[in-house]
Specification:
The complex is a heterodimer of chains A (87) and B (271). With 87 residues, chain A is α+β, with helices and mostly antiparallel strands. Chain A contains two helices and two strands. Chain A has a two-stranded antiparallel sheet with strand order 1-2. In chain A, a hairpin with a 4-residue loop joins strand 1 and strand 2. Chain A is rod-shaped, with a radius of gyration of 24 Å. Chain B has one domain: Rossmann fold. In chain B, 42% of the residues lie in helices and 16% in strands. Chain B contains 14 helices and eight strands. Chain B has an eight-stranded mixed β-sheet, sandwiched between helices. In chain B, strand 3 and strand 4 form a beta hairpin. In chain B, helix 1 packs across helix 13. Chain B is globular and about 55 Å long. The model of chain B has no long low-confidence stretch (mean pLDDT 92). Classes of the chains: A alpha+beta (87), B alpha/beta (271). Chains A and B meet through helix 2 of A and helix 7 and helix 10 of B. Chain B: This is Septum site-determining protein MinD.
Chain lengths: 87, 271
């Protein structure tokens, strides 16, 4: 620390503001997305269960955010033999 | 018509309880019948800040569970006869607060009070959710500091999603109360400015409470700052904030603590 720093204290507030703006922009989207993923998972599961016997934990839904596009990964594990529900 | 106000923040230690007491007393000074309700089960402090800790007999959980009547649990303030406190339980498990029980108590409070001010616990767990659930209006207490602003943003999201009002599809009224503000440090670029916080959180400003020894003094004595030191800068800011809640238009001033030359030189605070 030099004598000049004493007269001119570091301006940290602009850094705080910028960090918060970037962080919250991201967090607001992810908070919304986690709800979306849960809703999608419920509905996908409901559709599947209408036709096959499948335990709830065998359906995994993941959302991956990329720069340009995001991908939705749906992983469904069907037990063998696949038991089709009677219509 | 009665209004249920929740004082919330997400982060702990930003001044929720102090602000609940100060706003509650300011609203009562304005001629309203006010009940301040402590939702912080297991870590109650509103009784202490209000100076009523030795008068607690029954609490919110007793009323929720039907073990006591609301009138038995309400403690009338010694200084203002239109101000009442409903304390939280210090010993009971917070799971004893049932959603239906809280709803019933809130309805009963609405019948006899103009303002019901709910002091939320920190965090985003059950207690905080129950405190905001029945609110008509929310005051989000925020310090000009990164972690507090981030947590406030989270709480604002929950106010818009998890309250009864939001679930009915209505707009949840939210106001920002910026506490522990130091205008001089903000001016020097060492603390987030009012405008920075407003821009980030984008909810209307209710008031700016300056960092001040009057606040600690008041809680030391067990008296809301708006009653204990009504002429101090934070008390004036709280009184203005209370008037804004009532719908008055009061010009916003950035409060500056008047400090003498000697305290400027020798009184530099740590942190």
């Amino acid at each position: 620390m030099t004598i000049f720093d004493f007269f001119r204290p570091a301006r940290s507030a602009p850094v705080a503001r910028d960090r918060l703006q970037i962080l919250l922009q991201h967090e607001r989207v992810t908070a919304g997305a986690s709800d979306l993923v849960a809703v999608l998972r419920e509905e996908i599961l409901a559709v599947l269960q209408r036709h096959v016997d499948i335990p709830a934990d065998k359906v995994q839904v993941k959302m991956q955010r990329g720069e340009a596009i995001s991908t939705l990964e749906v992983d469904v594990e069907l037990p063998n033999p696949v038991r089709r529900k009677a219509a | 018509m009665s209004q249920v106000l929740v004082v919330t923040s997400g982060k702990g230690g930003v001044g929720k309880t102090t602000s609940t007491a100060a706003l509650g007393a300011a609203l009562a000074l304005g001629g309203n019948r006010v009940a301040v309700v402590d939702f912080d089960v297991g870590l109650r402090n509103l009784d202490l800040v209000m100076g009523a800790e030795r008068r607690v007999v029954y609490d919110l959980i007793n009323v929720v569970q039907g073990e006591a009547k609301l009138q038995q649990a309400l403690i009338r303030d010694k200084r203002l006869d239109t101000l009442y406190l409903l304390p939280a339980s210090q010993t009971r498990d917070k799971d004893a607060l049932t959603a239906e029980g809280v709803a019933r108590v809130m309805e009963e409070l609405r019948e006899s009070f103009d303002w019901i001010v709910c002091d939320s616990p920190a965090g985003i767990e059950r207690g905080a959710m129950l405190a905001m659930r029945h609110a008509d209006v929310a005051v989000v207490v925020t310090n000009p500091e990164v972690s507090s602003v981030r947590d406030s943003d989270r709480i604002i999201g929950m106010l818009d999603a998890k309250t009864e009002k939001a679930e009915r599809g209505e707009y949840m009224e939210k106001h920002l109360l910026l506490t522990r503000y130091d205008a001089a440090r903000a001016e020097r670029g060492q603390m987030l400015k009012v405008d920075d916080v407003l821009e980030i959180l984008s909810i209307p400003l209710l008031g700016i409470i300056p960092e001040s020894e009057a606040v600690l003094n008041a809680s030391n004595l067990g008296c809301p700052v708006t009653l204990n030191a009504a002429e101090s800068a934070p008390a004036k800011a709280y009184i203005d904030a209370a008037r804004r809640l009532e719908g008055d238009t009061v010009p916003m001033v950035v409060p500056m603590e008047r400090r003498g030359l000697m305290s400027k030189i020798f009184g530099r605070r740590a942190a």
